[in-house]
Design a protein that fits this description.
Chain lengths: ~270, ~750
């Protein structure tokens, strides 16, 4: 019902239900794989970027498991829980790397080895385009608060694999962001053109098509406001009235598992 | 001498009653002639009676006198006048009715009530139903057994069935779209509709292809006594209707156009973020031509059409997501031509042949940055129907009929480009589905064995569905026992089939191996009229119903081999369900005060392999509606409706997962349909006032929906991570004021 869409769209007030860009409670901001696309049997190192800004430094642990992404085989499941091929990769591992006052940043990494037989049931086309291997990351606080995030690693036999895009720097009012803005500053991402890769899609009739990646930039802050939580690489967002201590996390995603990030923290 | 005396007396008489005064007696406001009315001239003790044209002629002596006309159902008419020496030929006496229902007509050719449980809403009833805005389909929602439509929809949900299990017909012909924008208002000009029939569980064999029930809308024929018209305007729309005699028959044409979209356009004008490129607007129209070309033959041609459109553009990021900007366009339309021929062979035998021909069209498209999605369907529909009714014996009537539907649909859709992963879907898909044929034959018998109080109605319906390649038998049986003059006991049962929807059997996105869904209905109840012949008093009806459903089409992600390839099944017939309940209605029939109380107690469940047994999403344990109407002597009516409905089930979100690549959270759901939204309560008020002028009537109506501004919950909205939520309320208090001129 189109009028329902119209009314719901403008009936929604996000402010009272929380803002995706505002980091305050326990959050997983990004999971960066050193290799977003690999052949079966490859080991991938993943760096989590998390935030517990208002956690007061409480103890955190994480658990990791992996499975073939159910969506690859036409099933609907968002996690590896209760999957027959679930592999436990890490259990209740203590988090290190967060410090006062921001408690936001990259933490200790972990490694995931993609099972060698993961593509056994895939067709030729599916092997060429790739199947996803799902990595489930659960972050738990000492008081029991838990958040779960997933990361997908593309497993294929493609000759030219996907690599992570590069977020060179964050630009604030035309210059690299170096200090916390006092009032309002316009932010943008500096991304080299080569980060936007082209790749080949193979169709069931054997034909192929070249496709370009679509890069997105996601912005996260611990104080102040943003005019846009997500932009393209050419887009901007205004950060207004942050108060120290403040952190800005910028995550660049290529839509195919490739990720990069930058973290700015004020004293 | 006698001759002289005679002529003297005559001359005196001529001098005393010598001036001819002629004129007409007409109904005030409508100008309808009042035939057979006695017109008195006082104090001269003269009287004359009007003819079939309402005309009269009387000789009145010069001097003062008073016209007096006193007709049942009319306000007594008195007018003083002076008769001069010259004849008068243009006197009009306008008599005012006590109650005006200008557009209520005697139902011409009304079919007898074949199904005991059927409910009929007349135009008078739905025009003034509070909370319905005069809309016939919205007024149906007050009837027992009807669940409240959720959200902003007005779909009619019958006795535990799904909205798609309700079929809608116009003059007996199935139509696909009955609401503008999914529920704002129906596509029917209310004053062009004569009546609406609601057929719940256990309906007869004349209709099929629906597991829930039938809603039949019947157009009104034009008046044959005089040309009439009306025009109206309210907050949302305006319209006009004209009808009258033509040749040996009549015509009726009614058109409506909305303009609330223009108000929305003004509201968003200058908004940098949102550009309403195509304001929401709808148009609908009905035209009917009817003629009698012999004493035994009547021909009727009805046309109905409707068009909705809406379009908007997001110039700026939506919800701070700069990647979410784009446009949305929506258009839907349909038209039907319905010629009909009714022939009476004899007092015992008559036939009816009619045909529906038309086209349906739906287009939706949306763009967001580089991604676009569109869906379009176009369908030609031909619906032939024919029926012969024959009285075999005085106690046995038999009805045979054909009820078929032929569709030629085309679907095309364009999906967003898939950037990665396995086997991406091609960008544009056009689906040419084969012609869909649904042929039905039916037989109904009505047998009233002599010297018993029974009426038995065994029937049979046969359906062929080309989409599933099935020929299906659907037996029906109904019985009525007249316990006394005012107490009727009744029961019915039947087997009902419903074919899958076109997208469910399409070979690319559906499953061409599906079967038709089916339901068995059982219903029993009674109807008691406490008035015992009087006009005022109470009546009550109550019916228990039970439905068993199986082969319900449900989504499936299982892989199957089809045409030698491993593909997802998409859908299968693994669904089943039950619905049980009691639907009751208490009516107060009164001259000044009338009303109804309808109450339905029910439970509806479903089962499918994914979720097991669960409460159906439209399960509403209690649905209670109280309606009251008070008619004043000075042509005003005040009516109120109070509704209470149990909240609909919903599936709670118990957790969420953040997809770090896509940048959004995915909800994790708890037990399916294990929670309920808060209960619904609303009070609707309506006030109507008429001013009767000699040759026209002005009506004002004020309709206030949700007069207490209750914040009824229609849905739940969640925060970005599904950890927070609040309730989304439905429509707030919504007043509508309208003016109508009838002439």
């Amino acid at each position: 019902m189109p009028l329902v869409a119209l009314l719901l769209l403008f009936g929604c007030s996000r402010l009272d239900l929380g803002l995706v860009e505002l980091l305050s409670e326990l959050r997983v901001v990004a999971l960066k794989a050193d290799q977003p696309e690999v052949a079966a049997g490859t080991t991938v190192t993943i760096t989590p970027v998390v935030s517990d800004f208002k956690g007061g430094g409480r103890a955190l642990t994480y658990s990791v498991s992996g499975c073939l992404d159910p969506a690859s085989i036409g099933e609907q499941a968002e996690r590896c829980d209760s999957r027959a091929d679930r592999v436990e990769i890490a259990a209740s591992t203590g988090v290190t790397g967060l410090s006062s006052p921001h408690y936001t940043g990259a933490i200790n990494t972990f490694s995931v080895t993609v099972p060698p037989a993961v593509l056994t049931l895939a067709s030729g086309v599916q092997k060429a385009n790739g199947w996803w291997y799902l990595v489930q990351f659960a972050l738990t606080a000492s008081d029991g608060a838990t958040v779960t995030a997933v990361k997908r690693i593309l497993v294929s036999n493609r000759g030219t694999v996907n690599t992570n895009p590069t977020l060179t720097s964050v630009i604030a009012d035309g210059a690299a962001l170096a200090t916390l803005p006092t009032d309002r500053t316009t932010l943008s991402a500096s991304v080299p053109a080569a980060s936007k890769q082209s790749y080949t899609l193979t169709f069931s009739d054997g034909s192929t098509k070249s496709q370009d990646e679509s890069l997105a930039v996601r912005w996260f802050i611990t104080s102040g406001t943003l005019t846009s939580a997500t932009t393209g690489t050419e887009g901007t967002t205004d950060w207004q009235s942050p108060t120290a201590p403040a952190t800005l996390v910028t995550v660049l995603s290529d839509g195919r598992g490739g990720t990069d990030y930058q973290i700015f923290s004020s004293p | 001498m006698r001759i002289v005396l005679f002529w003297s007396v005559s001359l005196f008489a001529f001098a005393a009653f010598g001036v001819t005064h002629s004129g007409k007696v007409l109904e005030k406001g409508t100008r309808l002639p009042l035939k057979g009315a006695n017109v008195f001239v006082l104090p001269l003790q003269l009287k004359v009676r009007t003819d079939n044209e309402g005309a009269f002629s009387i000789d009145i002596p010069e001097g003062d006198f008073t016209w007096v006309v006193n007709v049942s159902d009319y306000i007594r008419y008195e007018r003083e006048e002076h008769q001069g020496p010259e004849p008068v030929t243009s006197t009009i006496l306008y008599l005012e009715r006590r109650l005006y229902d200008v557009y209520e007509t005697t139902i011409y050719g009304k079919e007898e009530k074949r199904d005991d449980r059927s409910h009929t809403l007349t135009q008078k009833q739905f025009l003034k139903m509070p909370g319905s805005g005069g809309d016939p389909l919205k007024a149906v929602q007050n009837l027992p057994g009807i669940a409240r439509a959720s959200g902003f929809s007005s779909n009619i949900i019958i006795e535990g069935s799904a909205p798609k299990d309700t079929h809608y017909t116009l003059d007996g012909i199935e139509i696909p779209i009955v609401f503008h924008f999914g529920g704002l208002t129906s596509v029917f000009f209310p004053e062009a509709i004569e009546r609406l029939d609601y057929l719940p569980s256990g309906y007869g064999p004349e209709y099929g292809r629906a597991m829930g029930g039938q809603i039949g809308v019947w157009t009104k024929s034009g008046r044959t006594d005089a040309a009439r018209g009306l025009t109206f305007v309210d907050f949302f729309q305006a319209g006009a209707l004209a009808e009258g005699p033509v040749g040996n028959g009549s015509y009726l044409v009614g058109v409506r156009q909305s303009y609330f979209g223009l108000l929305l356009g003004l509201l968003f004008q200058g908004n940098a973020n949102f550009d309403l490129q195509v304001v929401p607007a709808y148009t609908d129209g009905i035209a009917v031509y009817e003629t009698k070309f012999t004493d035994h033959d009547r021909f009727r041609f009805a046309t109905a059409a409707s068009d909705d459109r809406l379009g908007f553009l997001f110039s700026s990021p939506v919800n701070k997501d700069a990647t979410a900007r784009g446009s949305f366009n929506y258009e839907t339309s349909f038209y039907r031509f319905i010629p009909e021929w009714i022939h009476k062979f004899s007092d015992d035998t008559s036939s009816r042949v009619f045909l529906g021909v038309g086209k349906d069209f739906v287009h939706v498209d949306a763009t967001s940055n580089d991604q676009s999605f569109s869906f379009e369907t176009s369908n030609w529909a031909v619906t032939p129907r024919a029926e012969i009714e024959h009285k075999i014996l005085a106690s046995w009537k038999s009805i045979w009929g054909i009820d078929s539907l032929f569709n030629w649909p085309t679907y095309s859709f364009q999906l967003p480009a898939s950037g990665s992963g396995s086997s991406p879907t091609p960008k544009t898909v056009t689906l040419e589905t084969p012609r869909i044929q649904m042929a039905g034959l039916y037989l109904r018998n009505e047998i009233a064995p002599p010297e018993t109080n029974w009426t038995l109605s065994p029937g049979l319906r046969t359906d062929y569905f080309s989409s599933t390649h099935e020929t299906l038998l659907g037996p029906r049986f109904a019985a009525r026992y007249q316990w006394s003059e005012n107490l009727t006991l009744r029961g019915a049962t039947g087997l009902y089939y419903q074919p899958p929807q076109p997208q469910e059997i399409e070979k690319t996105i559906g499953n061409p191996s599906l079967s038709a869904s089916r339901a068995v209905h059982f219903t029993t109840g009674f109807e008691k009229d406490f008035r015992e012949g009087a006009k005022e008093g109470f009546s009550i009806s109550s019916d228990a119903f039970y439905k068993v459903m199986d082969r319900i089409v449900v989504p499936s992600s299982t892989y199957v081999v089809r045409d030698g390839q491993l593909v997802t099944e998409n859908y299968n017939n693994a669904g089943s369900g039950h619905a049980v309940g009691l639907a009751s209605e208490l009516k107060l029939h009164g001259r000044m005060l009338s009303g109804f109380l309808s109450y339905t107690l029910s439970q509806s469940t479903r089962h499918d392999p994914s979720h097991g047994e669960y409460l159906f999403q439209y399960d509403q344990t209690h649905v209670a509606t109280l309606g009251l109407q008070l008619e004043g002597q000075d042509h005003w009516t005040l009516s109120a409706r109070v509704r209470y409905v149990t909240g609909n089930p919903y599936t709670p979100v118990i957790d969420s997962v953040y997809d770090t690549d896509a940048g959004f959270y995915t909800p994790i759901y708890g037990l399916y349909n294990s929670q309920r939204l808060p209960d619904f309560f609303s009070v609707d008020l309506r006030f109507d006032k008429q001013w009767i002028f000699n040759s026209w009537i002005l009506s004002l109506y004020v309709d206030v929906q949700n007069a207490t501004n209750n914040k009824n919950v229609e849905a739940i909205r969640y925060g970005y991570n599904y950890k927070t939520s609040d309730f989304l309320a439905g429509l707030p208090i919504l007043p509508t004021i309208g003016l109508k001129g009838e002439f």
